[in-house]
Amino acid sequence: MKPAILVARAIFPDVLTRLSTHFEVESNQEDIIFSPTQLAEKLRDKAGALTTSSARINRELLQQLPNLKMVANMAVGYDNFDLPAMAEFGVQASNTPDVLNETTADFGWALMMATARRITESEHWLRDGQWHKWRYDYFLGADLHGSTLGIIGMGRIGQAIARRSTGFNMKVIYHNRSRLSSEQEALANHAQYVSKEEVLRQADHLMLILPYSTASHHTIGAAELAQMKPTATLTNLARGGIVDDQALIAALRTNQIAAAGLDVFENEPRFNPDFLSLKNVVLTPHIASASEATRRAMANCAADNLIAGLSGQRPPNLLTLL
Ligand code: GLV
Asked: What is the pLDDT of residues 95-129, one digit of tens each?
């Protein structure tokens, strides 16, 4: 008999078909976001699950699921997993690293450039019928070329973002839990390792791409925003909760920093509505990895992990320390 799995959210139909050659699949193509109680109910008879960040896999859930053996997250981030609890309950966990690095880095640049050059703000103005003439000082923004790019979180995506800055003749400074090797720094446009305070003080454009954890909660709050240049932009590609959104709203409102580009928010998708009243913020709905090819690669990567894990092989992207 094939093991039973839950695909907890809507997914590409051909990936469901692929999974169903290995498993009895319960799918959710209606894309209902299950409550913890519904998720426990759906997972009760399942050996595995393919999840996204909306599914919290924690101790309370695992206590109710003695049959569960593996959960494959279709995301590189896995802050929705309680890994120590999963290890304790003997449940394997995996994520989808690498396949999204370049697409996410591309998007980081798109968001940073839209923010610095006021692209969405000026488009709204144009669509609103306000464009009657050209003026020398309409929508003056900040240059990317020749400026200093500050990156907090210099993992694979941070390095891919840094690599792209060579064509813009930018200086790259970064802060990370650990320093890169000199070879990695050279490939990342000769990025220089500095303290978090130096990144905040020197960056013309600040890019946040670090994993979320209790340790990185509110890496950027009022005190950090106060250290930034008033002309600086901030781009958050990482996770809601890395930035204190209330503090950022205050900083944008008072022009303490020039502008922000945000793909992630605290409490998303019910983000703080005060962002909507600000012109100097570019808002996107958590789509940094959303190219057709990359989302497919992520879905297939999660499927590969689940297929390996539930057939007794080591999942290629195993996270759990069992
Ligand atoms: C997206 O946010 C991911 O973690 O892959």
From this structure: 999 999 999 999 999 999 999 999 999 999 999 99
Is the CB of residue 289 below 6 angstroms from any atom belonging to ligand 1? yes
Give, as one character, the DSSP assignment of residue 2: P
Among candidate residues 118, 239, 266, 295, the one labeled active-site is 239
Would the pLDDT of 33 be above 70? yes
Q: Determine whether the shortest distance from the Cβ of 221 to ligand 1 is under 6 A.
A: no
Query: Catalytic site residue 268?
Result: yes
Q: Note the pLDDT tens digit of each residue in 207-224.
A: 999 999 999 999 999 999
Topology of the domain comprising 4-97+292-309? Rossmann fold (3.40.50)
Q: Which two tokens stand for residue 165?
A: 């800055």
At residue 321, the pLDDT reads: 67
Every domain of the chain and the residues it spans? 4-97+292-309, 101-283
Tell me, yes or no, if 286 is annotated catalytic: yes
How many whole angstroms from 125 Cα to the centroid of ligand 1? 32
Residue 121 among the catalytic residues: no
Separation of CA 1 and ligand 1 centre (Å)? 33
The tokens 């995996």 sit on which residue? Answer: 94
From the CA of 254, how far away is ligand 1's center (Å)?
31
Q: Which residue's C-alpha comes closest to atom 4 of ligand 1?
A: 77
Q: CATH assignment of 101-283?
A: 3.40.50.720
Closest by Cα among 56, 53, 52, 59 to 89: 59
Among 213, 219, 216, smallest CA distance to 234 is for 219
pTM of whole model > 0.85? Answer: yes
CA of 74 to the centre of ligand 1 (A): 8
Whether 4-97+292-309 and 101-283 share one fold: the answer is yes
* 297: exposed, middle or buried (Cβ count in 10 Å: 0-12, 13-18, 19+): middle
d(CA 185, CA 30): 45
Distance, CA of 54 to CA of 33 (rounded, Å): 7
Q: What is the pLDDT of residues 39-71, one digit of tens each?
A: 999 999 999 999 999 999 999 999 999 999 999
